[in-house]
Automatic annotation (TrEMBL):
The keyword Transport applies. One of its GO terms (molecular function) is ATP binding. Residues 5-252 form the ABC transporter domain. Keywords: ATP-binding, Nucleotide-binding, Transport. One of its GO terms (biological process) is transmembrane transport. This is ABC transporter domain-containing protein. Pfam families: ABC_tran. Belongs to the ABC transporter superfamily. The keyword Transmembrane does not apply. InterPro entries: AAA+_ATPase, ABC_transp_ATP-bind, ABC_transporter-like_ATP-bd, ABC_transporter-like_CS, P-loop_NTPase.
């Protein structure tokens, strides 16, 4: 399959100056010489504990921060070489994100219609009927367009976040811990919804989680990340002894019901 996103030897270092020592500093290597590619239409899972560098990787891929070294290629464009927001704008339209906390990512003063169509306004695109169609796409009623986030449950708010991400018909969506704040039943419903949307729109999805069970069930390939490094990428998890020692620990800690 043709790669849509390529990370080539990407490194991001955060420098922290010690206020007690003028010349000494402590460097935190958040992303360490990472290389991988994700195909068009692929659901790619990224698994790792808190602080392993997942969020930094997301911010790099979205162009919100620049790496210290390496290339990030979206289709054929190396976004690390783009010098202005105007140059980045055509790429920005092709990528969207859904975050963990829907309560903080949705404006409580806006109706669902305004929330979903806001990306269209930003790019001066037609809005007529889009919110209604997308609400139905994510399993909500089109008649809800005038409701506000406070009138919805956590799972329903996350569906609205997904609808907003779909508004620009992006090539890929990054889902950063998108089910972590949900109960088990609602999380399963959101995963089933994402599978249907992937089938319908054939978009690439980067699904980031610390839950190896959810990623194993949902994603076509899975990458294990620790201390800023990708330890291994697999299509399926086999017997623990076939994997990296850290992956073995994750598999052995997996909860079976």
């Amino acid at each position: 399959m043709e790669a849509l996103v390529k990370m080539n030897k990407v490194t991001k270092i955060y420098k922290k100056t010690n206020p007690g020592l003028r010349k000494n500093s402590v460097n935190n290597i958040a992303v360490d010489d990472i290389s991988f590619a994700i195909a068009r239409g692929e659901i790619f899972g990224l698994i790792g504990e808190s602080g392993c560098g997942k969020t930094t990787l997301v911010n790099l891929m979205l162009g919100l921060i620049k790496p210290d070294r390496g290339e990030i290629v979206i289709d054929t464009v190396d976004i690390t070489k783009l010098k202005s927001n105007r140059e980045f704008l055509p790429i920005r339209k092709r990528m969207q994100a859904v975050f963990q906390n829907s309560s903080s990512s949705l404006n409580p003063q806006m109706t669902l219609k305004k929330i979903i169509t806001e990306p269209l306004k930003n790019f001066h695109l037609p809005e007529q009927g889009v919110a209604e169609e997308l609400l139905e796409d994510v399993g909500l009623s089109a008649s809800w367009i005038l409701r506000k986030p406070a009138q919805l449950s956590g799972g329903q708010r996350q569906r609205v976040s997904i609808a907003r991400a779909l508004a620009l018909k992006p090539d890929f969506i990054i889902l950063d811990e998108a089910t972590s704040n949900l109960d088990v039943i609602t999380s399963k419903q959101i995963i089933d919804l994402l599978k249907k949307l992937n089938d319908k729109y054939k978009m690439m999805m980067l699904f980031i989680s610390h839950d190896i069970g959810v990623v194993d069930d949902f994603c076509h390939r899975k990458a294990i990340m620790k201390n800023g490094e990708i330890l291994e990428i697999v299509k399926q998890f086999g017997p623990p002894e076939n994997h990296h020692p850290y992956t073995q620990k994750l598999l052995q800690a997996r909860l079976h019901i």
